[in-house]
User: Fold this.
Amino acid sequence: PEMHARRLAKGAERFLMPAVPERLFVAACKAVVERNAEFVPDAGSDGKGMPNALYLRPVYFGSGAALGVHPSSHYSFAVYASPVGSYYKASSSSASSGSAAASTPGLRLLVQHEHLRAAPGMCGAVKTAGNYAPTFLARRLATSLDCDDVLFLDRAAAAAGGGAAGEGSEDPDAARPEECSAANFFAVLDGTLHTAALARGTVLAGITRDSVLRWAAGAVSRGDLSGVCEGNLTWGELKAA
Assistant:
């Protein structure tokens, strides 16, 4: 929980909000679990249609009695809890561009070449509700095509890749996978774990992302993976895998 508290504090700084003290954050998470202990799912639940975890969601928002484009005079912090199961339904296909995908266990992702989840200089690296709303339209399209989620791409890389073809052209295969609408994206190709880099400020430096990368470092040392690469994978390479 301390890492989540630090992430909230970093996000608050971006929006000129006072940081929630780390001790208060951790105490609030502990209190909400204790008071909702009866809703903690049994450890034996498999998550298939039944809750298998207690999800905590900290919320921090301006609540001052004033209208205007400026920081709030007062802020409210709360933590709510809910029993949850698997976020994604069971699927039998992998990444696709809307066409039939290979029957490999995993998620069916609609690769999005038009809409962006975030852009450089904005708030893509911050855990904020404003980063989820822009994904709704693309995700509705994905759902209508029986996909589990959307895979957003870095369009700047596509534009740079199309430079040789003339001004204003793009090379879709040069675009780099960034994130899904509700999760970081990882792929293992030829023994190397790939994920988007954080340098452009468009990808959330999530706690789960950090955990996966720590696990991957151990897997490399054990010889279970050959390496970890952040940011160099292109859509063309992923599509050809």
The mean pLDDT is 87. Residues 207-222 form the longest helix (16 residues). The helical segments are 2-14, 22-35, 136-144, 155-161, 207-222, 235-240. The CA atoms of residues 117 and 134 lie 6 Å apart.
